[in-house]
Design brief:
- With about 325 residues, the protein is an alpha/beta fold.
- It is about 35% helix and about 15% strand.
- It has 9 helices and 13 strands.
- The longest helix has 22 residues.
- The chain is globular.
Amino acid sequence: MIVVTGGAGFIGSAIVWGLNRQGVDEIVIVDNLNESEKWKNLRALKFRDYYDRNDFIEMIKKDSVPFTVSKIIHMGACSRTTETDTSYLMKNNFEYSKLLFEYAMKNRQRFIYASSGATYGDGEYGFGDDDTKLDELRPLNMYGYSKQLFDQYVKHRNGFKEVVGLKFFNVFGPNEYHKGSMTSKVFKSYNEILKTGKIQLFKSEEGSEYANGDSLRDFVYVKDVVYVILELANNYHVNGLFNVGTGRARSWNDLANAVFKSMGKEMGGENIIEYIDMPEELKGKYQYYTCAKNDKLNGAGHGRPVNYRSLEDAVDDYVKNYLIPGKYLGD
């Protein structure tokens, strides 16, 4: 069985969708549904069983998992970059990950886990995924630090000789509907246009070198992320810590224009970008530039180099095939 933690969430459910497209349904989903709308991501997917995260953790601790595990694809974590409960982040993003890592190593199971581009902080030391330089990085928020801690833990256990860590950059796409304030700006922009015709973007902080809306991010489509994960899941000889991003930095203004265009709207008149003050909790913690250096992954021998979609093509697919008709992956 392939275990997908966070399997009802955004990237996790997309991985299950990708596995289904390969004809694979021997999948066990582990998640924590509570009162969220994540369950809707599962309706069109095929899998064998579902376990609550806390129940699965107890099984791991007692070594009483009632099925044979071949691979663990670990996407389960708190993904709120604004989360301030440090103890919660440490438990969900660090302790949980350590437990699964040790279990997979003991039982010789393929282990792939989600790290984050947030570990790079302001980019002072670049965006290269050389794990020998992990200790130089300085994340800007506790979310990024929780991911950094686990990267360091795996490194110090010599784990990158056997497992795969993936530093996701700005992932967007279908099945993120449940994420509330943490949905992508593509999703938010689509709904802002429907309501007001305007897209709101943060003003740059005073003294920034970037004009309003011109700060740059590496936006990557979830379907391309799934391609990377499934390639690596089946290539046991490829291990290490890798960036997952397009390698092309684009501005928030570019993103806004792409959403307007995909909805058949021209910029101007009522269709405008409105720049608003950045929230206090983000000031001093905001990444003005991210861009994945991805030659390490492309040269790793996992298969074909990743042909990432352009921002415009990815937004067009997302808006026209999922947001407008209100569909989920697999519908």
